[in-house]
Structures are given as C-alpha cells and as structure tokens.
Amino acid sequence: MKLFWARGYMATSLPDLLETMGIARSSFYATFGTKRELFIECLVLFGDRTREQLVLDSQHLPAVSLPRAFFESTLINAPSKRVKQGCMLVNSVLELADAEPELNRQAWQKLDAIQAVFEQSFSIAQERAEMSTAQSPKQLAQRVMTINLGLRVHARQQKSTEQIQNLIDNSLAMIGLTA
C-alpha cells in the first residue's frame, strides 16, 4: 500500500512490488493474483481505515467540528512525509481518471463512503438541532469532500503547515463550519 501510495498505480512495477514485499513472483501471483487485484485491496484498506477513523471521531465530536478534526489529523498532525504524499484515494482518482476507469471508480467509491460518514453526522446533528439546517446534510458533506480534494492537492505542493491551516480555516468558514 505504501508503495502504491507514494508512486501511484501506473509507476509501480511488479519488480518494485516484489522487492518491497520481499517475495518471489510465484508467491505474489499465488497470494494476490495480479498487480491490479493487489491495488484494489490497497484502495479498500486505505479507504476503510480512513472511514473507520472518521466514524470513531464522529462518535466523540460535534458534527460541526468533525471536518476540522479530520483535516487537522490528516494534514496538520500527520507525519510530514505522509502529508506530502497526499491521499492515496485522491491521488488514484487523479491518476486513473482516463487511464483506468474501473480503478478510478473504486477509488471514488471509497471517497463516497467517507462522504457518507460526514452526511450521516450532519443529519444527526440537524435532527438534534445542534447545527444549522440552512444546508442539507448531503450538500454540506459534498462541500466538505470538495474541500478535501483541494486540500490534498495543496498538501502535495509542499505547502507549509501554516498555509494548510489557513486553507482549512478559510474553506470551512466559506461553508459555515467554523466551530
């Protein structure tokens, strides 16, 4: 997963994978089938881990604070090397849009699952009158994920922590999530 995350699907060769994993070609094929199948497993793992962490956070944070906590934990408080690699899902969406439509669709599905956690959290908060109903939970979650895409691209451009923090603050203020 780390190799695909750092290099992308297209630039990661089977010999690179074999060397990194320390296994023989026959073991690779017996275990994973193909590079494509392994990549799909990695997308699923990355997406599921991200979603699960967000679900845990949503159980302990007010919905209005959830996007900021998500962005700060993955862009401000994460190791610099990881931040500069971007998000594996966003990287995959950008890399594979025209080259590998099926893999691109798989990455979007995982991003959609993350968006669904935001939407559910906003919906519950609105039902409890804990946040404004000026925007539908779906619209608000879509806006958060649009911000997510932009922040991940900015992070890959080697922006400073202060610059990323300003982008987070300004973006969340634009959609009314300034808690």
Task: Characterise the protein shown here.
The protein is an all-alpha fold and 179 residues long. It has one domain (47-174). The protein has ten helices and no strands. It has helices spanning 2-7, 14-21, 25-32, 35-58, 66-76, 80-85, 88-96, 101-127, 137-156, 161-174. The mean pLDDT is 95.
Gross geometry: elongated
| Helix-strand string | HHHHHHHHHH
**Percent of residues in beta strands?**
under 5%
Number of domains: 1
Low-confidence stretches: none
The total of beta strands comes to 0
**Whole-number mean pLDDT:** 95
N- to C-terminal distance: 34 Å
How would you classify the helix and strand content by structural class? mainly alpha
Instruction: Give the helix tally.
Output: 10
The major β-sheet equals: none
Percentage of helical residues?
Answer: over 70%
- Gyration radius, rounded: 18 Å
Quick summary of this structure?
74% of the residues lie in helices and 0% in strands. It is mainly alpha-helical.
Reconstruct the topology from this structure:
Elements (H helix, E strand, L loop, with lengths): L1 H6 L6 H8 L3 H8 L2 H24 L7 H11 L3 H6 L2 H9 L4 H27 L9 H20 L4 H14 L5
Q: What attributes does this structure have?
A:
179 residues, mainly alpha, 10 helices
